[in-house]
């Protein structure tokens, strides 16, 4: 068992450019996010301020809300139309009271990839730690924690075809992060509790398999996305694309004019097609997601937002069927217009 855990840790460390003892296994990305942010509670650091963005996952935003109620200050940086955080905005918000900056690597709703190298460099100039929620990025694009200046990173196995209920946090050597879960001496004394061995091994195997074909998968999925968007743009429908070119391949967010996204979701579901409206973690709630609001999608388009996710197991035929059915559903709701 020790050998299996050690081998898994080594595989994961090599893939993200870390050292083995910098990888700590967790129950998933949410625990890792909580740990990174709540470490401000347990350390001896006199700094009491955190900076994040308005489009973070709720694992970050709700944790920040808890910290605010405990007296800590949180600064929420705005984003532009495509969800990008401005380096100058971050620099203007930083001072000697900031303990941590947490900016997600890639957004889970619109796929936008942040300029992590610049953001981490600015953060370090003010002596703060830089954390990134990379749950949506790991296994889908290349990430190198050393080259990109990342101090803390969260990841979750189910996002790269691994088992649910397992993830990891990268903690850079020298970063003073107190344990979130105390008890035994597991995980170098940093995270107590009996290890989820099957989950850990499954996560390692899944990440290694994804990484081995990463470039081919990215190229293939990007091709599927290009085909899909070409079909949609020829449809004559009135919609906007909620991302720029710097995004996760296969993550497509579209907002249709004067259409209810929730109705679209159900109509396609009846035809055996699974899409999402808003965030996948908010699928039971029909309100406009915080990400779509933050990037300033006009109200008449925002309600018609859907997300289509393509992966390596999809085909060109899938793309054509999904596009055809989506176009048909939208036109049906518009009365054939």
Please tell me about this protein's structure:
- The protein is an alpha/beta fold and 337 residues long.
- It is built from eleven helices and ten strands.
How would you state the average pLDDT, rounded?
A: 94
Query: What level of helicity do the residues show?
Result: 25-40%
Order of helices and strands: HEHEHEHEHEEEHHEEHHHEH
Strand order of the largest sheet: 1-7-6-5-4-2-3
Shape: globular
Amino-to-carboxy terminus distance: 62 Å
> Could you tell me the strand content as a percent range?
5-15%
Rounded Rg: 21 Å
Q: Largest beta sheet, briefly?
A: 7 strands, mixed
Number of helices: 11
Structural class: alpha/beta
Write down how many β-strands occur, each being a DSSP E stretch of 2 or more residues.
10
Unreliable spans are none
Would you summarize the structure shown here?
The chain has 337 residues and is of the alpha/beta class. Helices cover 39% and strands 14% of the residues. It is globular and about 60 Å long.
């Amino acid at each position: 068992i020790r050998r299996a855990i050690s081998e898994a840790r080594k595989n994961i460390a090599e893939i993200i450019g870390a050292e083995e003892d910098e990888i700590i296994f967790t129950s998933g990305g949410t625990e890792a996010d909580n740990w990174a942010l709540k470490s401000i509670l347990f350390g001896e650091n006199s700094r009491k301020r955190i900076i994040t963005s308005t489009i973070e996952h709720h694992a970050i935003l709700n944790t920040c809300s808890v910290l605010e109620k405990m007296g800590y200050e949180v600064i929420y940086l705005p984003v532009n139309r495509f969800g990008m955080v401005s380096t100058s905005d971050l620099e203007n918000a930083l001072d000697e009271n900031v303990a941590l900056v947490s900016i997600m690597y890639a957004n889970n709703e619109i796929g936008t990839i942040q300029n992590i190298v610049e953001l981490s460099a600015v953060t370090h100039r003010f002596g703060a730690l830089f954390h990134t929620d990379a749950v949506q990025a790991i296994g889908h694009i290349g990430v190198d924690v050393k080259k990109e200046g990342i101090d803390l990173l969260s990841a979750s196995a189910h996002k790269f075809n691994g088992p649910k209920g397992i993830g990891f946090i990268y903690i850079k050597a020298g970063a003073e992060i107190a344990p979130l879960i105390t008890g035994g001496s597991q995980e170098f004394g940093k995270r107590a509790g009996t290890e989820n061995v099957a989950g850990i091994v499954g996560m390692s195997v899944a990440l290694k398999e994804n990484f081995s074909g990463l470039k081919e998968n990215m190229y293939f999925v990007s091709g599927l996305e290009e085909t899909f968007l070409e079909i949609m743009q020829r449809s004559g429908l009135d919609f906007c694309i909620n991302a720029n070119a710097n995004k996760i391949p296969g993550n497509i967010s579209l907002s249709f004019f004067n259409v209810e996204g929730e109705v679209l979701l159900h109509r396609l579901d009846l035809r055996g097609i699974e899409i999402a409206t808003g965030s996948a973690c908010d699928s039971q709630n029909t309100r406009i997601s915080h990400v779509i609001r933050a990037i300033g999608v006009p109200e008449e388009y925002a309600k018609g937002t859907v997300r289509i996710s393509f992966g390596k197991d999809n085909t060109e035929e899938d793309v054509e069927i999904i596009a055809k059915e989506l176009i048909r559903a939208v036109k049906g709701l518009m009365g054939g217009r």
